[in-house]
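Workshop exercise sheet. Pairs work together: one partner reads the sequence aloud, the other fills in the structure field after running the prediction. Swap roles for the next sheet.
Pair: D.N. / O.F.
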Amino acid sequence: MNQPTTYQNYINGAFESASDHLEVFNPANQALLSRVPETGRADVERALASAREAQKGWGARPAVERAAFLHRLAGKLRENVAHLARVITEEQGKVCALAEVEVNFTADYLDYMAEWGRRIEGEIIESDRPNENIFLFRKPLGVVAGILPWNFPFFLIARKMAPALVTGNSIVIKPSEETPNNCFEFAKLVDSLGLPPGVFNVVSGSGSTTGSALTSSPLVDMISFTGSVTTGSRIMASAADNITKLNLELGGKAPAIVLDDADINLAVKAIHGSRIINSGQVCNCAERVYVQRGVADAFIEKMAKAMDATRYGDPLAQNDLDMGPLINRAGLDKVAQMVEAAQGEGAELITGGKVADLGAGYHYQPTVLAGCRQEMAIMRQEIFGPVLPIQIVDDLDEAIGLANDCEYGLTSSVYTSSLKHTMQACRGLDFGETYVNRENFEAMQGFHAGVRKSGIGGADGKHGLYEYTHSHVVYLEA
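Structure field:
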């Protein structure tokens, strides 16, 4: 058995040992993988101070020089795909093929954001006065605190780091305490490329200790967080005294609407993929279905067969799996309790519905629940597991009303062959994203953002890039 790795924080261009540690376990078999720093306030403040000092020189460089570093880092990632993917699979539980996709997509994302080095634009605004020019410049905010989730831990490093660095900011990253190992491996690659000390820093630890020190510090100019609504609310409260800018991607309860005129096989394939990718632990994937009555029986039957055929287990023990374990015992217990409660409220269990008997690890059977109603918790609260609740509706108007009746507003989807129905859904659905006849997965050049409790601000594309800047308007008479 391999000995657990002891990782070190990366502060001001150097790896530093720590006196207190957290342990990290493999969710597929509960094996101890590593010990990582539990970083206290003093070390967090040192990391932030180094980032603030480094940002001055980094922000003064031409954007194309900053972009060149991101391109080099993308190349390093591609040279180390197999190693990085294995680290992700070990600590997070996603299947190996998906972990490799995550690493390669992260490299592509770094390249994409680097291309903005020559595309960051200001504005010239017409003045009311003769001989006056009004210029709008985009400038870096300063120091960014990036707080990561555990479900796509590697990609989210780049989603926060790349736009921050190319626009001239420095950053301090706090990975999730569930999945910090991949972030430290990422830091090793950064260190090998000679980035100026302090521009990129990593400090690990619990939210209550390390996270709190980051979010309450006056040295932070922006907090970019991806995670739960509960934690996002705490971060808002912590940042309030300093009026720190927030960028929050929070929860989702994405509705999928399947109409009578839909391609049922396409809908089943896309929604099934949504529920099993990363074991259903994805905030933007379909979490509830509203299926029109005329195709409900056929849809439920085909979905049950697809879920029954799902291959799951320990991703490092088998190569041909569709999904791995849930992240931890708390996640497994939550899913089991929600399914049990739904059945108690009258939902019909079509398939699955139990903790999988695979020995060690946090595995749950792919599950379909029919006969669900809007008032049930399973139709209103995030499941974050391979469970699909289904409610039958009579028409599109009813489906849109039910879809919008939710505290979340991140993503949605609709399956129909009618352009009229498509446009009606696009006008009526109140969500940051709507996918039509395809799986729920955003493009890096789009803008991934939600409404209501799904967050503040967004990521990706031009609009996500400019989240990391502030405007400076100059009035010049000449």
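Discussion prompt: The chain has a mean pLDDT of 95. What would you look at next?
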